[in-house]
Structure formats: structure tokens, C-alpha cells
Structure prediction request, 288 residues.
Amino acid sequence: MLISPQDLQRDAEAALPRLRQQHAALLSNRAQANRLLLGLVLAGGLALFAMVWLDFSLVRVVTGLGRLAGFAGMMFPPSTGGHLATYLQSMAETLAIAYLGTLTAAILAFPIGFLAARNVIPNPFVHFGVRRFLDTIRGVDVLIWALIWVNVVGLGPFAGILAIACSDFGSFGKLFSEAIETADRKPVEGVLSAGGSALHGHRFGILPQVLPVIGSQVLYFFESNTRSATIIGIVGAGGIGVHLAEQIRVLEMQQVLFLILMILIAVALIDLVSSRLRHAMIGARANS
Prediction:
């Protein structure tokens, strides 16, 4: 028996409420997909507006590729320009800036991390005040800190050390406090039940748990600060960045490539050593 199109439409409309009830999950997923699509369209529209507002131009990028290729051609072969000893000394200075800046920040942030942890300082006013103070410090970029300290203590690596120390102090304080808050409470309760004070609980219950994590974070920041120390050198805070900025300014591109290769090799070596140390401290989590 043949079924007419009208009968099919009538049967489909009659079955529609039952199908909606049976497959409510699928229909809700469709609604979520529509919302996701709407979000993507809004994000794309916002990006397009920003590109127009900021005068983003693919034509300028394409026309600039020729100059970029010219700069790249001028870089080969890399050359020291007869300044190898000076560059090696500046590279060592950069590593020293990163090391001392990171170490100073870690030492200063260590007690502040306990003050910012809810499970150590239950007072919400103290906790809130310390957290906002750390947010304020870490909200200023290391380059801004470098410009500030160059004007305060003058040009040179000392300003770079202070810039990295200030920038990392806020980040370390936040990360240390989060590590302390995630520590297991049972060792602390064990110390307290054995007659220990609250200070003993923190010393023997929390500290052994968080020290490997804190050490891993400090090593990671030292690796990252090696690159930051290069950047802040450009504004006069010492290190290899001073020479890098100078050679770019006078278009000595062969020496620029040599300096870039030095920085890449130094960062790769520090990353290798840092990864091994972090793995030794916290095991497989170091690779995550």
C-alpha cells in the first residue's frame, strides 16, 4: 500500500513530541552546539574588529617578507666580530642575573607563601591582603621592573637582579601558597596528636611535602629567567641583551646571529639540567 506525502507529514508531526521526550539529551546537545557556534562567531567578530582597529595588514606583512629575507641573508655566516671573550663574559653575567634574581625572589616569597595559604593562616583578612599584595607585584612585567630599577640604581646587572626578583616574588608567593594549600592534612594532625605545636605541625607536616614542589618551581623559573635576563638587558639592565640590542641597532647581523645561538645553547643546556633536577625532586610529574 502506498503512503501519501500528506500521511507521512501527519505521522511525523504526531511523533515529534514523543521523539523530543525520548531524545532530550541529543536535542540539548544541539542547543549547546548552537551556543558554541554563537560564541565562536562572536569571538571571530571581536578578532576582526581588533584587527581593523589596530591596522592589521597582511599586505604589509607580505611586502615586508623581502626585507626579512634580506636580514636573514645578512646573518650568515655567524661571526663573533672579534668579541668572543666579551660575549662569553656577558653570557655568564646573564646567567648570574637570572640565578641571583630567582634565588632572591624564592627566599623572600617562601615565608609570604605560608601567610597567603588558607590552611596556615585561617584569618580571611590577612589571607586576602597578602594575596592581593602578591597579585599587585606580579601584575607588573619584568621589563617594567627593569626600567624602574635602572632609573633607581642605575644601569647594570644589579638593576636586572632586582627586576627579576621583584617580578618573580609575586609569582612565587602565589605558587608557594597554592602548593601549601594542597598539602595533605594528615601528617599535621599526626604531629599535633603527638603533642606538637602548630608550628611543629607546619615544620614537620607541611614543609616536607611542599619542598620538592617549590624546588621544582624555582628551577623552572630559573630556566625562564635566563630568557628574561636577555630581554631586560636591552633596556640597560646588563647581560648579553646589551650587546644584542647594540648589534641590531648597527645592523651587524652576523654578530646578532652568533649572540642568538649563544642564548639558545645556554637555554637548552639549562633546560636539560633543570629537567633532570626536577625529575629527581618530584619524579614523573616533572615531565608534565
